[in-house]
Amino acid sequence: MWPPPPRTLGLVTLFVCAVASAWCSGSPISPSPTPQVVATPAPPVEVPVNESPAAPTAPTLPPTGAATTWVNIFGDTGWCGSPVMASLARLMTDLGGDVFLAGDLAYPNGTLEEFRRCFDPELGRFRSRFWAAPGNHDYQTAGAAGYFTYFGERAGPDRSGYYAIGSSTWQVLMLNSNVANGRNSVQIEWVRQQLRSSTARCTLAVMHHPFDSSGPNGPNPQQRDLWDVMYSLGVDVVVTGHDHLYERHAPQDANQRPDPVRGIRLFIAGTGGAPPYGRARAAGNSEVLITGHGLLRLKLEPALYEWEFRNVNGAVLDRGLNICH
């Protein structure tokens, strides 16, 4: 096991707080110099694609697959001719960790030929590290047949498009936002059962469509029932794609009200190579918006999580941490 990187006194205090939850009551805290997690969302910050921030200070881990607590997440990739995928492949080789794919993985129609021609040449080498969730472009082919054929067991044990895995000490739900997820749907009942039977303190969900977004594809009120179930049963983090940008939202409830104690934090990471989108509106709980390509990194600890958004050159443009519910 790799020794932990040096931490500031504030981070040490946070970790002790996370372990001794009776002392801290699970309240979210973010020590300096990481971004503050606040009850009132800060105005969104837009970072140009060509910005060159300071080099990341955190050491990168060697590739160790499922053994590491770091996971990498992005969607909206498999765009033929995009140089971004080669850059992401180099980055994932350096960083290691499982890769959770948030849908729209072969453009434009999700055919098996498009997966082989537009996704596989750069990213297929990481197949043993993938866990995939489908997007709407994957369903441009009937039944998402190309997607399910390409990913096989890495898209779940059947072709429902939703399944559960464990990562570190976390429960991870890979969900299908393209099929029915209303209050009485089969998928929502499955989510309820998974969350009620889980013994994990912390839960992450990955799917394609965001509940809200400052991009052109938000909000998505059809996700409210699913969000309400996840909120009521303690999900900590949801990561999506769909809008081709990175956005971090403050924790919120199913009525999109800020809730720093029990709310779900939403990340959008549709940054895998499709042409980027800009801001179309101001989502109510948006904290940071970045208009470039890259990937989201999450470090899944027993009682907390850290996040980093890295551009394709490996520079960290957003980072922070929070305690699980």
Number of domains: 1
Estimated helix fraction: 10-25%
Shape: globular
Strand proportion, as a percent range, falls in 15-25%
**Strand elements, count:** 14
Mean pLDDT: 84
CATH H-level homologous superfamily name: Metallo-dependent phosphatases
In the CATH hierarchy, what is the class? Answer: Alpha Beta
Radius of gyration: 18 Å
CATH architecture verdict: 4-Layer Sandwich
Distance between the termini: 26 Å
**Spans of at least 5 consecutive residues with low confidence:** 1-68
- Determine the number of helices (DSSP H or I, runs of at least 4 residues): 7
What summary fits the major beta sheet?
A: 8 strands, mixed
Structural class: alpha/beta
Sheet with the most strands: spatial strand order: 1-11-9-10-8-7-6-5
Any descriptors?
single chain, 325 residues, alpha/beta, Purple Acid Phosphatase, chain A, domain 2, eight-stranded mixed β-sheet, six-stranded mixed β-sheet, 7 helices, globular
